[in-house]
Amino acid sequence: MEISWFQAALLGLFACLSSMPGLGGTSIGNYTLGRPLVGGLICGLILGDLQTGILVGIAMQLVYIALVTPGGTVSADVRAVSYIGIPLAMIAVHSYGLNPASREAQGLATSFGSMVGTLGTVLFYGTATINLAWQHVGWTAVEKGDFKKLYTVNWVLPWISHIICSFIPTLIMCKMGAPMVDLIKTYLPMDGLAMKTLFTVGSLLPCVGIAILLKQIVTKAVDFIPFFFGFTLAASLGINLVSATLVAALFALINYKIKMLSLSKTAVVAADDLDDDDEEDI
């Protein structure tokens, strides 16, 4: 698999859009286009291999499923994971002749994603640093009362930052990534100790993402029950996680109805008590 300059440019464009606050806010940009699950779909469409793109994106999404950026501090840049790591992982999977759905391919993909994600933090902070200059331009415009200039500061100038720190690195790394993957393939054969170690470590990385997610949502021991229930359904009944999610949605709806009924009964009892108090006062 080779990536053309046009395909690399499209990947660079999506790398910019996934981190542009102006693109419908961070909900559409960072938290949708920037996620590996969505990035895998887009990379698959651009590179003409939808199945491999989605499977690689799923593997990488598990690693970063609970990634948060408190105070702008990031341990990995999912923008780079989605639009640099996924294309390079797709090339690597094809170069080694692996089945994209195999455990080896998933381990290789998560390893590539982790390497690129750590490197992407440099691009993330580079973008933030350049944006400080535009912030200064914005404050100067506010002090002068030139509020119309804020549209330029918000919608136009950030493109310069993202072209420098997102578009150009993605373009070069995706286009030049294939020879590097071939070089890795030459010096790190499939049956070598290094690749076996890489597969093993890569297979463990999704566990880290799930563990971080559990640490955020589990507050007491009984919270584990609904979490493991979905995996039990998938393992015992042979259904996929999408089907398990629909079952979970039904239980969530039932729980919501029960909560609403209990709240309404509490409100009725409180109203009755209030009426009794009023009668005693009279």
TrEMBL record:
GO cellular component, one term: plasma membrane
Compartment(s) of residence: Cell membrane
Membrane-crossing residue ranges in chain numbering: 50-68, 80-98, 110-134, 155-173, 193-214, 226-254
UniProt record, GO biological process: phosphoenolpyruvate-dependent sugar phosphotransferase system
Pfam families xrefs: EII-Sor
UniProt KW Metal-binding keyword: no
PROSITE patterns membership: PTS_EIIC_TYPE_4 (PS51106)
Xref: InterPro entries: PTS_IIC_man
Membrane topology classification: Multi-pass membrane protein
Keywords: Cell membrane, Membrane, Phosphotransferase system, Sugar transport, Transmembrane, Transmembrane helix, Transport
Protein name: PTS sugar transporter subunit IIC
Organism taxonomic ancestry: Bacteria, Bacillati, Bacillota, Erysipelotrichia, Erysipelotrichales
